[in-house]
Structure formats: structure tokens, C-alpha cells
What does this fold into?
Amino acid sequence: MFSEMPERTRLATAGAQATVASNLQRQRGSEQLKGNIFFALLLLAVAFALIGLIALIVQSAIKGAPAFGLNLITEGPSTINPEDAGFRPAIIGSIYLILGVILLVVPIGVGSAIYLEEYADGTKWWNRLIELNVQNLAGVPSIIYGILGLAFIVRGPLDLGFILAAGSLTLALLVLPTVILASREAIRAVPPSIRDGSLALGATQWQTIRRQVLPASIPGMATGVILAVSRALGEAAPLLLVGAAQFVTFNPQPFSADGYSAMPVLIYNYALRPQDEFRVLAAAGVVIMLIVLLLLNSFAVWLRNRYEQQW
Amino acid sequence: MEARDALEMARGIGADKPPRSLRSSSPRYGEKVIKYVLVACAVLSVLTTTAIVVSLLVPTIGFFEQVSFGDFFSTESWAPNLEPPSFGVFNIIVGTLSTTLWGLLVAIPVGFLSAIYLSEYASKRVRKVVKPILEVLAGIPTVAFGVFAVTFLSPLVGDAVPGFIKTPPFAAGIAGLAIGLMIVPIISSISDDAMRAVPGGLREGAYALGAGKFTVSTRVVVPAAISGIVASIVLATSRALGETMIVLLAAGKSPNLTLDPGASVQTMTAFIGTTATGDIATGTISYDTIFAVGVVLFVMTLVMNMISIRLVRKFREVYE
It folds into this structure.
């Protein structure tokens, strides 16, 4: 741009630019110092968070290292021989719990999201009530869901007793709002023109949802479901209240009243014991959980990037 | 041809037939059934809330038939399982406030400054790496933070500052540190979104007036995004209030009416978590106490959540 100008103009512009720049530079002497200190603080904050994360992962790995081995997966808990103890019943319990959560939460969560996005008239008070209610439920502490599970599912109206299925149901209610919110986002990302096109060709509303909206929003929903499930997998607090017993040495069954266990609960129980051998076991359990959760999360991110549609 | 003429002609052609309706030709009961099934799914979430409220309130009413309001909301000692029992709930409310406070003292500066960095300073590439890593923190189970706090942070702080932790390894400040680490991503992620929603024009205006990056960030972007930032902090507070596993492992279980970070405290969640395990008999006063404490916790977090939902909606309205 400068090369097209006459020489005099170019020089004048460059001179003016330099003057302005140096003027501004001079004025901002203290400003710049403040700016640099601020920038250092910002880096410090980010570094603190990252170091915290790294410390947690590395420390768990180092602390848990003596317990690493197949024992962790194949053996049950033992108070006598902590060296040979493992997590087998808790792993099986967690798998059952999560399968139950998926079975419950996917149809109900996606159904609610479809209703709120595709059918509900947002100006009606009852639909606003449902929306506000879902947002609020997402922020209710997990231990309150434990209380709900204890009073309503284990005892009270449903009266299932302290069985694994009651734990599944409690966890499902806990993550349901997350699934609804994520599924709504995914459905909202499908542009209205797709629906209009389908409806204009004579498809009914459900046909439009079933054949156009849902297929296009499945990756987004799957991501949301995976993230919600990984949250359920790591939750221990509500399970304490609905009967995930401390030391179950047998493989739990979904509807048996003999008791059940879950990974985070057993980790908690190991960590509570004063002997260091159990602390080591707890750290090793944390490592197992972190690996599984990291895999789940990476899978969710991959899924989102791989199938995300650009409209 | 005028549209009306065309309409007249069309009417003339099909004069003996009634005008065609745009409604579907058959009733399509299936569509209706599906809609009602979907409505039922959505209503389930309202039922969940109702169930939470009912299951909390019914035993709480039973509780207050035996214990007076004054005895409950008092600073007397907290010993609901002893004989004679004592129900000074402020002991465990202060315990909760203590761990929350120390958590926020860690998380607000770290989360807020990280958000400014991500939104205003970081290059696109750095942002793409750092933001997901911070979000990994949000996905770590809280029991892992608890184990980390009690096996690593507590000995670390105990060695660095001898005498700081009164009853090793339990201390409200240690639990707070772990809680802080846990809620950093909530603050950084939501604040970052709020700051990025501030239109570029505001920044450019300030730069044009000669402001530096520091001034633009702190005087323009932060005030413009303040409702989102406050919302993130409120949401993080609600999460900290309700956190259970970290305080169970790292804060101990002695109800102490103190904000001292080196003291062991019992929080409301820790009380519920320790008392409600195993077969606790229904109808007893200890059983009802769980629910009375649950109500206090539920109300506190509900207020926090409502405030944060309001604030988030506000910043969405302004800029999107």
C-alpha cells in the first residue's frame, strides 16, 4: 500500500506513525510495568491449576504403584491381606450401575430434550417451569440425591431395598438434568431449515424428528451422555446413602439384597483406613478410575469432532 | 393475475367440493401418543424435584415436632447421636462455610485469572490446548481429590508449616484447597465464555484511545462480562457447599464452630454422609436429623443456583 504512494507522503506517514508510537510508548511506562506484572499473575494462575492437575495424577500413580498388578482387577477387598486385595466386586458393581444408568437416562433424557426443543411452546408457564426445574436440578448437590434415593427409592414409595438397581436409579436421576441439557444443545444445533424442508415434503412432525433431527444430533447427544455417565461413574456420595456396602467380597447382582459395592465407594473406604497399605490401594484405585474416565472423555471429544456437522 | 382472482377461479373449479383443509387427512393417533410419551419424560424431572422436596420435608416436620427451632438454629454443641442429644446446627453450617470459604479463596483468583488469560491473552493454539486440560480437572471424581488431599496435600502442608494442622491429617483448609482445585474449571470456563461474548468493538474502542492490554482486560472486558463472572463464582460456591467426598476424607468429623483453616471441622454433607450409611433405623431422631440438615443444605444451594441462572441469562441477553 505504501509503495503506491508518492515518496513524500510515504515518509510523512511513516514519520507520523513513529511519533505516535513513541508518544504512546512513553506515556505507558508505568502502565507497561503493571501490564507485565498482571501477565505474570495470569500465567501463575494457569500454572497453579495445571500443576494441581499434574500433581494429582502423578502422585496417585506413584503412591499406587506398589499395588499395580492383575490383583487389582481379579481380587476382592480384604482387611487381612491388603497386599493381595483388589477391586473386583467394586468394578463389577460399577459396571452394573452404569449400565442401569444408561438404560434409564438415555430414553428419558433424550425424550425430555425432544419435547422441550421440538414440541414445547416456550411462552407457556408450564414449559418454562420444566426448563427452570431442569436447570435447578443440575445444581442440586449429589448427596441430596442420596437422601432422595434413601427416602424414596430404597424405602418409602418405591421400597426397593438396598439393592444395586436402587443405586442405578439414584445415579440416573442425578445425571438426568445433565443429559437433558446436553441433548437440547445438540437438537438446537440442527438448523430449522432441515425441519422446514422435511415438513414441506409432507412428513409429520414425528417423522421429521425421527428421520432428520435425531440422526443429525446423535453425535452431540452421545457426547453429552458419555460425559454424564462418566460423572455417574465417579460419584460416591449418593451411593453411601443407598447401600453401597463397604466390604463386599462377592460379585454383586443387580437385584440381590446381599449388598453391592462401587469403585469410588471402595476407594473411599480404603482411603479412610489409617494403615498405609490401604492408602496405596486407594491411590491405585484412583489411577484405574482416572484411566477409565480419561478414555471415556477422550472418546467423547473424538466423537464430537469426528461427527460434528457443519451446516 | 391478482391472487384474489386466482382464488376465485380455483373456487369456481371445485365449487361442489368443500375447500381443502391444510390439516392432515387422517387423525394420526401415533403422533399424539408419541407426544404424550415425550411430555411424560419431561414431567419426570418436575416429579424428581417434587420427590426431593417431599422426601426432605416429611421427616423434617417429624424432626421439628421433637426438637424446637431455637434448639436447632443455635450455637449449642452438635451431637445428635449422643445422650442427651444436642442439635446446634450452626456448628456444621460453619464447618461447611469454612471449607467453602477456603475453597473459594483458592479458586476465585486462580479461575478468574485463568479465564482472563484464556480469553484475552492466550493465542488460539495455546487456548485450544489449555482449555480442554483445565476441563479434565472438572471430570476427575471428587473421591480422587479427597484421596489426593489426605495422602499428599495434608502431609505436604503439615511438613511445610508445622503446627498448622491441629489434628493431622484433617483440616478445613486442606479440604478447601482440594475443593478449590476442583471448582477452578467451573469459574474459568464460564467466565471465559462470558468474556469472549463481549463484542470486539468495545476492546477496539479502548485500544484506539491508547489503552494497553492490561487496561482493556480489567477496565473494559471484565466489567462488561461481570454478570457471567459472578454467575460462575456463585455456581462454584454452590458446588463447594454440596461437596461431600473431599470433606469426608480431608476435613474430619469433629463439629467445630470455627473458620480456622487448620482445624478439623464437620460439614453438613459430611454429617449426612457418615450418619446415613448402613442400616439406620427409620423414625429415630438420628434418621430425621439427616433430613433436617438436608433441608438447610438444599435451601442454601437452591438460592445459589437461582442467582446463577438469573445472572447467566442476563449476560446472554445483553450480547448474544
